């Protein structure tokens, strides 16, 4: 976990005025006396094949433990970071951490696939494609092990440049997932134009689908659409068994959510995997409404 401390500078989320673009020589920012910036680290949430219960991969999620505020909401962190050069450093750090982690898992005999999230800004330059290719080569990680989750909002700003970056990553062999599907704009156009491997149904629809028939209808239609286009479909925010059964009945490939596991640090994930037993197979009856 020592390597999971961010070395790229301190996000100025609490108005401390630290220059976020100046990397410190001490790789453990939080260890410096008087500049307790806390820790930036990655958590990993398992993604489970719905039909078999098999763990198919993990999503890497950023966590910042602030010395006074405790865990900071990642969306807040990203929103603030995106307004400055911090985002670039943050993404660099995320890519490094996740690829290094994949190499470690590989060495330990764990053939996990990891998905990481990228921000709006990151896709407007080809840097990220170069950086990912470089890291994969350096750590000897197969590109197929890595997946990138992009949000629809991210695609809007400059679609052509974003498409160029995504196409490069696709050519390298890195899978692309469209995240938070249904919450952005021009979703259907993106499905048609981008070299996607996967669609992720946004948790706002999944969370309510067991109670709300509209949410359920949206989730089912999304699954059907994705399948018709030959894409893998993953649901996020599965919190109970009923939702899991409904997703199974609807033909969803994989899911992640508190019903299976919360996001956790890499060391905990290894222990979780060792304990994990696939849930009992689903019976013959399919859940209707
Ligand atoms: P996301 O990529 O859509 O990630 C899924 C979110 O759903 C995560 O929130 C995860 O913790 C949460 N989640 C998973 N299962 C459940 C569940 O059963 N119930 C509920 N209520 N929530 C569940 P998290 O970790 O707070 O991250 C929020 C967002 O922040 C992410 O949404 C992503 O857009 C962004 N983010 C996180 N890490 C990174 C990162 O490294 N880079 C970038 N650019 N964005 C990141
Ligand atoms: Mg995501
Ligand atoms: Mg999402
Ligand atoms: Mg989100």
Architecture overview:
The protein is an alpha/beta fold and 289 residues long. The protein contains 10 helices and 10 strands. The protein has an 8-stranded mixed β-barrel with strand order 1-2-4-5-6-7-8-9, surrounded by 5 helices. Strand 1 and strand 2 form a beta hairpin. The chain is globular. It binds ligand C2E and magnesium ion (3 copies). One magnesium ion is lined by residues 59, 117, 149, 179. Residues 179-180, 200, 202, 236 line the site of one magnesium ion (MG). Residues 20-277 form the EAL domain. This is Diguanylate cyclase/phosphodiesterase. Residues 1-31 are annotated as: Disordered.
Helix residue percentage? 25-40%
Helical/strand content category = alpha/beta
Mean pLDDT: 85
Ligand inventory reads: ligand C2E, magnesium ion
Query: How many DSSP helices?
Result: 10
What are the defining features of this structure?
289 residues; alpha/beta; 8-stranded mixed beta barrel; globular; disordered N terminus; binds magnesium ion
Describe what is shown at a glance:
With 289 residues, this protein is an alpha/beta fold. Helix content is 38%, strand content 20%. The chain has an eight-stranded mixed barrel with strand order 1-2-4-5-6-7-8-9, surrounded by five helices.
